[in-house]
Structures are given as C-alpha cells and as structure tokens.
Specification:
Number of helices: 16
Oligomer: single chain
Radius of gyration: 22 Å
Order of helices and strands: EHEHEHHEHHEHEEHEHHEHEHEHEHHH
Number of strands: 12
Largest sheet: 6 strands, parallel
Distance between the termini: 23 Å
Helix content: 40-55%
Shape: globular
Strand order of the largest sheet: 2-1-3-4-5-6
Strand content: 5-15%
Length: 385
C-alpha cells in the first residue's frame, strides 16, 4: 500500500502534530507500507505560518496532481482543510485514491471556545479573526470532511459534531487517537511519597498558548506554591523563553518554578522523572497528546472536562476532572492530591494503565485496518460507477 501523509505544519518530531505524523508513518512503513510526506517543510522557510496555512490547499493541489500522475497513491491521509481544492480541481485523479480527512483538533469546537472566551471578556479577538480563522478556514475544514472517504476524529465529541452539524456520513466517521511511543509505557515511574511533608513535583507539558489554559495554570500554581513549600512546578515544551513564564510568578515562589522550553520527544520520561502530578487545564482540546504521554510516564492527571481529556480521564479513577477556566476548582483538585497521598499513588498507577491502548504500534495497526477496509470499499464503489 502506498500512503501519503499530509500535515499543514512542519514535520518536527518534537512537536505534537509533526511527531504524531512521523511516528505513524514510521510504524506504517515498518508494516510494509510505502509512505511519503507532504508538509510545510516543502514551502519556503521565509513564509510565515499563517501565510503557509492560507496557500497550502493550492500548493497541495499542485503537488498531489503531479504525485498521482508520476506515482499513484492508494491513500491520501490529510489534515483537515488541506485537500479540498485538489478534489475540486482534479476529481478524476483524486477519485483514484482513498481520501482520509484527519483531525488534529476540530477547529469548529475551538472556534466555539474562542467566541465564549471573548464573550466572557477574558480574551480579545482580532478584527481579522472572522475573515479567515473564524470564517473561511471553518468552511475549508467542513469541505474536506464532507468530501472524504473516511474522516478520522480524536474523540466522540468531534465525531458527533461532524455528523450532526457538518453532514458527515456516520459510516465514514471513525475515532482514531494519536499514538505515543511504546517505550514511554516501560519507563520507570516514581510513586508519590506517603509522608505529608515529602516533596511533590507537578508538571505541565505543552505549548504556552491561551487555549491551553495557561492563565489558569499561573493562578492556580501560584496559590499552591505559596501554601506548600514542599511543592515544585515544571513547565515543559512551552516553546517560549523561560523568563516569559517564570516572571509571571511572585519572586518568593519563582525559584520553585522550572521551565523547559523544548526537549527531544524521546526524552520526555527523563524530563518528567521524579514528578507525580500532571496539570493539563486546556480550554479546548481534541486529544491531549502531552496528557497521555505524561499518564504513560506515571503522572496522575488533573485536567479539564473538555474534548479529548474528558474521554481519557475518569474522575477519581485515573485522574481528576475539573471544569475549564475555573482556577479555584484546579486548586481544590491539587489540594486533594497533596493531602491524600494514597489517592495520588492509586491515580498514578491507574493513569499509566489507561495510557497503554494508545501505544503507537497499536494505533498504527488500527489505522492500517481502516485504510484496508476503506480501500476495499473504494474499489467496489469505483467498479459500480
């Protein structure tokens, strides 16, 4: 099977989208597939990310047109909003491949959160926002979903929204999670000490962006650090200078705040070594790759009841769930774990077990089965047409 994986971003192995696509491609190739990639790495580096996003469907249409004539592919697995123009301009050639529309987070749900945050006065949207991100981009994503042979979603909320609001056929809508390196599940984990005065280390893994709930993180962690001198905090993979984060904390607790702006993905177990709790307060989240990776490393999650996290974490069983954008509830959840070390230990162990189904080898095998089923159905439809 010949597969092209398309991503509207760079193929950075240490980033969420890039690492996910590269990991999937590597596993598919190990299983015998011939894998090619199309990503922003093919565009001039001088272009901004927003410019690349805008021109990507046109560039991809040209690229796929040339690829399919020289080296026909069986599957085009593209991130949402990417391949609609190619399918419109070249229906004969695009119809020869199984078209997969893959969500890395459904923009329609993120858009709803953006509007809610703006309506509550917590965020100001640019006047340009409705022109593209809140307008045409939403249309592009919907177009790719309704044209696709298979639409892959990260959680049931995304799938149900696409079926009920965007008109995606239920039979073509599947849930496929992101995969995490199998090795993470075998890395040593450190159970929380039972003594109340023993140090507890909290971590947050992910980019420093508004929708990741970073403002709530700062507020909640400031309060926790002020109350508990035995607690430390690590922000990992922020993508911004350490000072930009540490300077937001009061001077008296700042020395207990550690920032790791970037790291090689395979070293995450080392970065999280000795940590016990993972804070993941996203306001909107399709999956939560950092959340699952931290769970695999044995950290008990405190996360919000949104999108992917709400399906990954069962409150009181393998972590604690809190409402989004409610700092006091985050503080209460952290206090509960700091006070009840037995509970913290049990959640650590349960979190790790809950992460096992997301091993990359299993996710890739599931994806290959979907490709094979879709290819068989696609061939039958072409014969009947």
């Amino acid at each position: 099977m010949r597969v092209t994986l398309v991503l509207h971003d760079r193929l950075d192995p240490n980033a969420g989208g890039g690492g996910t696509v590269l990991g999937l491609g590597s596993q598919l190739a190990a299983g015998g597939a011939r894998v090619e990639y199309c990503s922003f790495d093919l565009l001039p580096s001088r272009l901004s990310h927003n410019t690349k996003t805008i021109i990507w469907p046109a560039y991809l249409a040209w690229r796929l047109r040339r690829t399919m004539r020289r080296n026909p592919q069986d599957v085009i697995d593209a991130s949402l909003g990417d391949a609609w123009l190619w399918q419109q301009l070249d229906p004969r050639m695009s119809g020869k491949a199984v078209m997969v529309a893959r969500s890395h987070g459904l923009i329609h749900l993120a858009h709803q959160t953006e509007l809610a945050e703006a309506g509550a006065g917590r965020k100001q949207l640019s006047w340009r926002y409705p022109l593209y991100w809140g307008g045409f981009r939403i249309w592009e994503v919907a177009k790719t979903l309704t044209q696709a042979d298979i639409a892959l979603f990260l959680n049931p909320l995304e799938r149900d929204y696409a079926v009920e609001q965007l008109g995606v056929e239920p039979s073509r809508a599947r849930i496929v999670p992101n995969g995490i390196p199998d090795a993470f599940l075998e890395a040593p984990m450190e159970a929380a000490p039972l003594e109340g005065a023993s140090p507890i280390r909290i971590a947050q893994v992910g980019g420093w962006r508004y929708l990741k709930g970073v403002n709530n993180s700062v507020e909640a962690i400031t309060e926790i650090l002020q109350r508990h001198p035995n607690v430390t905090m690590t922000f990992a993979g922020t993508g911004v200078p350490a000072e930009e984060i540490s300077d937001r904390f009061p001077a008296q607790v700042r020395e207990r705040v550690r920032v790791v702006p970037s790291f090689a993905r395979e070293t995450l177990p080392e970065v999280l070594s000795g940590h016990h709790i993972h804070l993941f307060p996203s306001l909107a989240e399709g999956f939560g790759l950092g959340l699952v990776e931290a769970m695999a490393c044995g950290l008990a999650p405190v996360t919000t009841r949104v999108g992917g996290p709400a399906t990954l974490v069962e409150d009181g069983k393998n972590g604690l769930l809190v409402p989004p954008a409610e700092t006091p509830r985050i503080v209460d959840a952290l206090e509960r774990l700091l006070a009840d070390r037995e509970l913290l230990r049990s959640l650590q162990l349960a979190a790790r077990e809950s992460a096992r189904p997301f091993a990359l080898s299993r996710v890739a095998a599931q994806t290959r089965e979907i490709y094979d089923d879709a290819a068989e159905r696609h061939a039958g439809e072409r014969q009947r047409s």
